[in-house]
Write a structure and sequence with these properties.
single chain, alpha/beta, 18 helices, binds iron/sulfur cluster
Amino acid sequence: MEMQILRKTKWGGFKNARQMEKTQVIQIVKDSGLKGRSGSNYPTGTKWESMGPGERYLICNADEGEPGTFKDRFIIENNPQLLIEGMCIAAYAMDAHKALIYLRGEYAYLKKGLEKEIEKSNKYLRQIKLSIRIVLGAGAYICGEESAILESIEGSRPIVRKKPPYPAQAGLYGKPTCINNVETLANVPLIFSGGWDKDLLLFCLSGDLKKPGVCEFKAGTSMKEIISAASPSVEPKAVFFGAAGGCLPYRKFENLPLDDASVSENGAMLGSRALIVVGEGRSMLEISKVFAEFFVHESCGYCTPCREGNFRILELLKKIMDGSDTLCDIELLRKLAPHIRDTSYCSLGRTSTNYLIGAMKYFESDFTKLCR
Ligand code: SF4
């Protein structure tokens, strides 16, 4: 069966939305139940409705940097028209005439294709006096955060802004700005062209699988059913939810419905629905070291707990791996991880040790067996 996100709407959603008052378009999006698909789950219609007065900006967040996440890339590669159409409906509803796509630096190769798609859509853009510009990021994970994107576009160091004010009141260049992610915007035309199923979500499957890739499943489908669709190459041992969402042991949770509430109740976060499958035989210690290297590299360095803490975590993990660690250091690791979570300035630091907290909770022996 064709994936919903690959449906060709041929601008039918935009044409239908254009027949309506702007307020009616927003009401339909509110009633549809569409929520931010980046993992934020913020109601999209409510976000559109909260825009302040005056000149407004729409930004499409295509800075997909969470490890194991590649669903936005999938949409841009396979159905870019749906994204541009969704941006047009959003801009029309919010009366925004300037839009930007903030494209992840590593996705530079997608820029040409997107520009062609914008060119092809000129007729519709002109109808609502909308210009769409692509801004290429420089590859920083922190720019997935909406206010860091604003800093980056303005040419500043991308440090997360203190809120309030929220971007809807004072965003890009101080103007009201709405930031929606690719998957969220791509679902908008489907709402207006009929037959949209709000429960169908994209999942990114990677790791020890024979058929990794992007799949579409209903929210609440069991972990086992989703992972089985990608044919595990060995018996799964654990599943990481990206790097920021932590992990759960597979055997204990294989029947867990994968929806935000069920995953959160068990101490992890579904987030952007990146399932990284770890097969039996792999060491959670070694995988934790890979994640620690990632966060040391991506920490922007602005605050001490994240900058120094993640560096120390990597140091301790390396020590354990070369057999020179003691159980005392394991205890230190156990204290340091939640401390970084609780004291870091922004969400990057606050989620940067979830992988470790989960791995140490469920797979303690992977960490202690090498200690003196
Ligand atoms: S938690 Fe601090 S150091 Fe880490 S990314 Fe955020 S501001 Fe930068």
